Amino acid sequence: MGAAIAARNQGPALHRPRRRRFNHLPYALITPASLAIFGILAFPLGMLVYLSLQHYGLRELFLHQGTWVGLDNFRTILADPLFQQVVVRSLVFTVANVALTLILSTLIALLMLKVSRPIRTILMGGLVFVWATPVIVAIDIWQWMFDYEFGVINYLLTQIHAGNFIHHNWFDNPFQGFIVITVVVVWGAIPFVTITLFAALLQVPDDVLEAAEIDGAKPWQTFWNVTVPILKPIFLIVISLSTIWDFQVFNQVYVMLNQRPSSDYFVIAVYSYRESFGITQYGLGAAIAVVMVLILIVVTFFYVRQTLQTAEIGA
Amino acid sequence: MIAPGTAHQGVRVGRGRTETRAGYRINLRGRTGRILADITGLAVFAVMAFPLYWMIATAFKPGRDILSLTPKWIPAPITLQNFQDAIERPFFFDDVKNSLFVVGGTVLISLALAFLAAVAVARFGFKGRTAFIILIIGVQMVPLNALIIPLYLMLDQVGQTDSLPGVIAVYLAVVLPFMIWTLRGFVANVPVELEEAAMIDGCTRVEAFLRVVFPLIGPGLVATAIFGFIQAWNEYIIAYVLLASPENQTLTVWLASFTTNHGPQWGPLMAAATLTGLPVVAFFLILQRWLAGGLTAGAVKG
Fold it and tell me: What pTM does this model have?
């Protein structure tokens, strides 16, 4: 237990709180880290908002100075039908990916409770390897597997008579392209979520489960009425994290489409990138990013509150 | 009852329980259920692991076996030609060097900063402590992809685009919050009495820390260092935006540009992907137990 807590709860410090000198040491200790975090994350976040209120194109980039335009950028993007499409697409994509990740991970975590020991070790090993795979590597692998000419997926789908997939190009049709992207995202996300849920499942007290079964609850009822409520904090944390990651998805779209995605594939992070670095409208790009941050702030608030409660620090 | 970050404990507790749970299930369901579960488990493993197998298998196949309409499931004969082609691609060694420099810089600096901050949070009750904790938890959620524009323009103004120190600075801020949070748990687990004993024996507070606490949190330092390594090694978009010239780029950027420049050459590409993933996998295997427990330890009260 930390000294801070110990001191507060137990002892000597409680009797003489006023006589203690002001202690500079902890502030000195957190200053370097705070500066780095503030300078690189918090300050740019402020600057992002500031940029979103400016016209900042090539000329401004050259002069290092934007022109103030108020809310013009926001008016522009809100009136832009492509932007509305992109936001809706991102939201749908996020919901689908988070739901798929969660359902599959929960099933695998439950399965891991039931399998025998060697199988659990093998399964865990597989998950860890997938977890460790760098995103860019994963994208390359799936690109190869979904290759229209020699890809193993087209071969297998044709073999099991799911249809004629010979020379089928998945990226001709954006909907099918997004299926591939979803596969890559969910495949990459499953290990973390599964292992987290599995670790949490192990902490569900056996006596509670036993009691439910003695009372005649079916396994499904036990899971829904006993396990899920106990694991609710973990589910909430995992859902907020997945939402944050999937809503700002960039690599899996941008690199998957060989760094030249057509506008049918724009999700919000790709659109923001494209406006800023593709057509050098940094103000517009910033405004789009601000919208992304605003949507995510809601989720973040939820996450921070839950983590603090879980850690029993804010309480 | 303490918090996440006491991850190593959480996982150990978990392992103890696994066995009771397993035994209890056998009585309940019998043998058939178990065998069915095992088969499903193997099937899930096959689906999850196949892409990785396919990457490695492809990397060792000669070209004619890769470009065949009926896939060759097992690479025979095997060849190292793809690996040779991959590392002979321009800028491979430059970019490996850059990646190592960025990773090394990020890990060393962030470890020092995170250790100091973790000590402050774990050992001192000070005004603003809760605010600091909220900051480090909240800041992890800032969508990095949204910050690329201001980061690029900031670094552009001070002439640090296309330079590795600029990238290191960004990575520092990205890995620090998690590192502080994790190390905090490790420091908090070292009994204060040990330090006090050292101080009674004549150590100053700082000496007590360096001689007593520092060695005891070794595993925590290793875990956070590996975390920093993986993050910095894998990162793509910041490096892609900030580093313009190919001789200044990192390995992930090199790998991502593999397809675009010359069209897909699957053999060398898979060899390159294998090479890029290898160090991460090695380190990740060590780190995994700390990551897994981090979120869940203490979250469920028994």
Answer: 0.83
